[in-house]
Amino acid sequence: MIVRDPAPQQESLKVALSARVxxxxxxxxxxxQLERLREYALAKGHQVSKEITEIASGLNDQRPKxxxxxxxxxxxxxxVEQKDRLTxxxxxxxxxxxQMQGRKIEVLFPSDTDxxxxxxxxxxxxxxxxxxxxxxxxxxxxxxxKNCIEQVMEKPDEDH
Length: 160
Fold this sequence. Notes:
Layout: E1 14-21, H1 27-44, E2 48-55, H2 64-71, E3 75-80, H3 83-86, H4 91-100, E4 104-107, H5 116-133, H6 135-154
Helix pairs in contact: 5-6
């Protein structure tokens, strides 16, 4: 009796690039993002078969282009610039489900912090800032909050 692994072979699967920005005024950023993804894929020797660019919130779980890409079993690797370019929340769930299918996500620039709690907090603050202050200023304000958090975490507790 021959037992087959239900997961497809990684080598035979396609590579896709996924770029996302939050608003139409960032469209040029999406183009640059996609160009960096192409350069990365070329340097790694990947044959890219699909590219998607979305203008949508990373909090939106109703993104047709991303859903189509995730449902396409012929895509073995999805390359993104940063985790939050794929999704603001739930990245690890998506990554785990893909791994169960013999697929993967490659991230060009992993988080610049080693603290997942800080990353999660920054994602929450970014989403709240975007609602309060508008999309244009949210990234700058979230970066300011992140810097403050990192400074507080670096200081030893002086009360103890």
